[in-house]
Amino acid sequence: xxxxxxxxxxxxxxxxxxxxxxxxxxxxxxxxxxxxxxxxxxxxxxxxxxxxxxxxxxxxxxxxxxxxxxxxxxxxxxxxxxxxxxxxxxxxxxxxxxxxxxxxxxxxxxxxxxxxxxxxxxxxxxxxxxxxxxxxxxxxxxxxxxxxxxxxxxxxxxxxxxxxxxxxxxxxxxxxxxxxxxxxxxxxxxxxxxxxxxxxxxxxxxxxxxxxxxxxxxxxxxxxxxxxxxxxxxxxxxxxxxxxxxxxxxxxxxxxxxxxxxxxxxxxxxxxxxxxxxxxxxxxxxxxxxxxxxxxxxxxxxxxxxxxxxxxxxxxxxxxxxxxxxxxxxxxxxxxxxxxxxxxx
Length: 345
Prior knowledge:
Elements: H1 14-36, E1 40-42, E2 45-58, E3 64-76, H2 78-109, H3 118-149, H4 157-204, H5 227-262, E4 279-281, E5 287-297, E6 300-307, E7 310-314, H6 317-323, E8 328-330, E9 336-339
Antiparallel strand pairs: 1-2, 2-3, 4-9, 5-6, 6-7, 8-9
């Protein structure tokens, strides 16, 4: 094959391409992180970023990669720091109070809640009777007078029915007094028991310390480089160019073979400088399977080779051109011919 023969492009190494793409992606990610870590200063404090070292990891390719590590630090202004210290101290005091009170809760919860007792009921009856007894006494006198005026005698069925109904109403009133008083007393007992629990709950639900807020900064997006795609596109373009060159060469060779067939092999000869038919195609680009024979012609080595589909013997035009350029002719096709008559052949 001659130096003008098209050379097929070498396919890219997928492993090396992947490694290069991974490194580019890592660089892109690191650059984007660095651009987005913007230090901020506000009225209540500041937010700063600093590198605190690096982290190494093993990738899928077995290689070790190192990436930087960063720390975000929030600092308060002196005034805000003083408030935070006071808040922490207050919370510590409240926490201690909660510890002390929780011990009391353990004692409270360790004993059963006792609702109502005989002393409570007796007190309720004492207070209620002071008001209800005079009222029911007046009502009973009024009832007796009304029955007498109606001619209903004591001991009669009508008399006994009225007095029974009156007695039931009086009992119902005292029962309602006991129920209402008992319920109120139970509520007071429960409130007294729950007070310490509620106090601790309030202490534990104190407000939380809030960090200073900062303004949102714009997020910088760094576009990644499609290195793998670029390598693939470049290879496809080179392959396309190679295929075009091969096609053009095949077309030229096809035309020459067609012409050789039409002339019955006359293409191998042309008019020599002496007017003889001694010029033959001898361009190295047209030959294949070139083998030195050990013979010489005009001081030049003779080779055996295949040209236009058959085996021939002769010299190489490029070697003749170096020692006897006048013996080399240029065919309109662009291939070189040798005037063997000038070589004494």
